[in-house]
Amino acid sequence: MRSNSDFSKGSVSKIILRQAAPMVLAQLVHVLYNVVDRMFIGRIPDASVHALTGVGLTFPILLIINAFANLFGSGGMPLFSMARGAAKNEKDGAQANRAADVMNNTFFMLCAVGAVLSVLVLLVKKPFLYLFGASDVTYRYANEYIPIYVIGTVFVMISLGMNGFINAQGFANKGMMTVLIGAVLNLILDPVFIFVFNMGVRGAALATVVSQFVSALWVVLFLTGKKTLFRLEFRRMLPQWKLIREIVSLGIAGFIMGFTTSAVQMVCNAMLSQFGGDLYVGVMTVINSIREISFAPVGGVTSASNPVIGFNYGAREYKRVRSAIVFVSVVCVVYMTVVWLLLMIFPEFFIRIFNDDPALLTACISSMFIYFFGCFMMSLQMAGQTVVQALGRAKQAIFFSLLRKVVIVIPLTLLLPQIPALGVNGVFLAEAISNFIGGGACYITMLCTVWRQMKRLEKES
């Protein structure tokens, strides 16, 4: 396993694939946490559409929790990888100590912020859920789900934020087990709690909390065990505020991406509620679920490439950095093109996974054609964002996070539905437009900056 942790040796594409295989599975399994909830909730007798819509209204809150996990996890992991790579060429162990400190300070912040978020969400849930587009009918189900879910906020933060440190050490199979254990447990507990114990939406939330606790426990046990290269140690968890500022400055891009995704979802739900009612909020819930499943492999590949790019940059292997950029870009674009075609040809198959209500089905098919149009361009945004974040280019990563969501999607979501000929279709069209503008701008800028820099450094070294 220690030989697998040196990303500067062997074929770059093979290393990424070796990392990606379990991480893609891990991404897919992670999606099952919430998607499985929706699959079972969408079949609650006499309340399926309203219950599904109610749980969908909680997405912005769940995304905010994920955003804070990304703030520290996606900020700490590249610093950790670059320090590991730099440690390869040093003798005094300073960079190895830095890597250990980064991991432990990340863990401390995840636990502390997770505890604070739990309290805050409980205090503001009612006004926020109505702000997100809840009606008196759907609020009931959202209110049953979210108070139980936030009990497990710290568990979510640990499993999401710390799992990258397992993968970054070359233990991708162990990282896969983090989400696999929890998701399988969730799959088993969901029908038991929802239908056997007749807990309904509350049962789905409880199943998720129990599963997240088990995942977090797995992460902690591994990172304190004998097999890991870097361990969680209480003495290193004492906050080093200068180091935490570095983690936050790099992780802010991932945070903004998650936070702005929450803001986009809030605006979408509000506009859909206004122009289409509860039915179209339910449509967006289904579309978001399909998106999470179909985009998960791209997330797995980009996550696998992040530590490889960071490690080789730290080790001054600039040609290997460029090879990784090419490989991840081609894989992502090809995969997302295939996904786009499948969604356009077989939309009904994917929708029926969650609900087969005739009205929902009809509305969802036409909305899917608009929402997913040209979604392969989104893969360019994800690839470009991964590269700049892996190399510690925080400002560039932040800019493109804001460009797509805040500058393009939110204004278009507010404006397009006002056009009489568009109505609710304007909400879905905003996403398609942003994929082309945001994805293209992000990737072209990455080529003009990072790619050129790597070629120059390669010649100088």
Describe the structure concisely.
With 461 residues, the chain is mainly α. It is built from 16 helices and no strands.
Question: How does this structure look, described?
Answer:
It is a single chain. The protein is mainly alpha-helical and 461 residues long. The protein has one domain. The chain is built from 16 helices and no strands. Helix 5 (136-149) packs parallel to helix 8 (201-223), helix 9 (241-276) packs antiparallel against helix 10 (278-314) and helix 9 (241-276) packs parallel to helix 15 (394-415). It is globular. The mean pLDDT is 88.
Q: Would you tell me the structural class of the helices and strands?
A: mainly alpha
Radius of gyration: 22 Å
User: Would you count the extended β strands for me?
Assistant: 0
End-to-end Cα distance, whole Å, is 29 Å
* β-sheet strand percentage: under 5%
Largest sheet, in brief, is: none
Which shape, going by the Cα principal axes? globular
Give the count of helical stretches.
16
* Proportion of helical residues: over 70%
Low-confidence stretches: none
Overall mean pLDDT stands at 88
Can you write the helix and strand succession as a string? Answer: HHHHHHHHHHHHHHHH
| Structural domain tally | 1
Structural topology:
Elements: H1 12-41, H2 48-56, H3 59-87, H4 94-131, H5 136-149, H6 153-167, H7 172-196, H8 201-223, H9 241-276, H10 278-314, H11 318-345, H12 347-351, H13 358-371, H14 376-390, H15 394-415, H16 425-460
